[in-house]
Design goal:
385 residues, conserved putative lor/sdh protein from methanococcus maripaludis s2 fold, Elongation Factor Tu (Ef-tu), domain 3, Helix Hairpins, 3 domains, six-stranded mixed sheet, 5 helices, 20 strands, disordered C terminus
């Protein structure tokens, strides 16, 4: 009896050969992992690029006649209006030229009138043979020559008036005046195109953005395929972040892209236009332009913490696949949207992406999937579950 009890005791202490293995591989030991179920969501895609501001219009006011500057009639750095007189050049020589041209015109008109009267008289006499046909022809030719002299004299008067007008140097546009390059008493020359001052129109303001030619082609293809939407006017919206980190309060629109690719940088200059009524933007400022490329209605986004890179540099993620076993997926996720990756290949709606215990799992092992609960700083994730 004792031997029998001993044999039963030994048999009870022996492990059954058909029992489940211990640890992760057994059904009872499947590791619990938090998963994120992939679902499409609408997202507005943006791109931040360095940029420079440029004046909407720039005019260099230069000398168009020779002379001595008598007056400067504006304040440096002040706003000026189109047609406003900025400088006065000594007009005396040009007034004298105009008077001389007017005198020459009066003389030419008097000669032309006398020749016309003589031609009319000869026309009456040539029929009665009092004067010869040759004499009449000579008078007619002289009359035409005097009329040509009148036209020439009128042109000289007009040119003299234009030159006299150039002695009052005016602003060609509404804008802000820069530093005056000449002072009263300076001699300016039209042949040297002496610079007086530069006027810049600052409202609105241009913002020039260099963009990769490859990226520009990608955007165009995405719009053509309907993957990205644009506004009704077909123009992308642009926002600005100033050099001090603050965001510019007004939104701009994309105007055009340059037709030539810079061969040294493989980039294309894109120009946006911004309202600038308060004069906050000045030419030459370094800013960051945020281009609103469009809206993607079916974007698949994953937290960046769930995506890793393999030795080839490809994006990968662990997915709970068929039979609740771990699968390693290779993704195409080349673009970040905030703290998430935009996945364009490798995932579909409904896939369950593992978001925790990534260091403890490997492809092929069974797991128990539960909804992922992000850990709040200062709390225990396991306890929260």
């Amino acid at each position: 009896m004792a031997a029998l009890l001993c044999g039963l005791s030994v048999a009870g202490c022996t492990k059954k050969p058909g029992g489940p293995p211990m640890g992760m591989g057994g059904p009872q030991g499947a590791m619990e992992v938090g998963v994120i179920t992939v679902a499409p969501t609408a997202v507005t895609l943006t791109q931040d690029l360095p940029a420079r501001t440029a004046a909407f219009r720039v005019a260099e006011v230069r000398a168009r006649v020779n002379g001595i500057v008598q007056k400067r009639l504006f304040t440096e750095g002040a706003d000026v209006k189109e047609g406003q007189v900025l400088y006065e050049i000594d007009p005396a020589p040009y007034q004298a030229e105009l008077d001389s041209a007017l005198g020459a015109l009066n003389r030419a008109e008097a000669n032309a009138n006398a020749a016309k009267v003589k031609e009319k008289r000869y026309a009456e006499l040539v029929g009665s043979k009092v004067v010869s046909k040759q004499d009449y022809d000579d008078v007619a030719v002289l009359s035409r020559a005097n009329e040509a002299e009148v036209l020439s004299a009128k042109a000289a008067v007009q040119l003299a008036r234009i030159n006299l007008g150039y002695t009052k140097v005016t602003s060609p546009l509404n804008g802000r005046a820069g530093v005056s390059q000449v002072t009263e008493g300076a001699y300016v020359q039209s042949s040297a195109a002496t610079l007086f001052v530069t006027i810049q129109q600052l409202d609105p303001m241009y913002v020039d953005v260099p963009q990769s030619s490859n990226e520009l082609l990608r955007l165009r293809k995405a719009v053509e395929k309907g993957e990205l939407g644009v506004d009704k006017a077909g123009q992308a919206r642009v926002k600005l972040r100033l050099d001090d980190g603050t965001e510019y309060s007004r939104e701009g629109t994309l105007q055009f892209s340059d037709a030539t690719v810079n061969p040294s940088t493989s980039s294309v200059t894109i120009r946006a236009i911004f309202p600038n009524p308060d004069g906050v933007l000045l030419p030459g400022l370094f800013v960051r332009a945020r281009l609103v490329e469009g809206r993607k209605e079916d974007a698949l986004l994953l937290p960046q913490s769930t995506v890793t890179r393999n030795p080839k540099g490809e994006a990968t993620a662990y997915v709970v696949g068929e039979g609740d076993k771990v699968e390693l997926r290779v993704l195409k996720a080349d673009r970040a949207v905030g703290s998430q990756w935009l996945v364009t290949e490798g995932l579909k709606t409904g896939d369950r992406v593992i978001a925790d215990n990534l260091q403890k799992i490997r492809p092929g092992i069974p797991v128990k999937a539960v909804p992922f609960v992000p850990q709040v700083p200062g709390t225990n994730t396991a306890a929260a579950r």
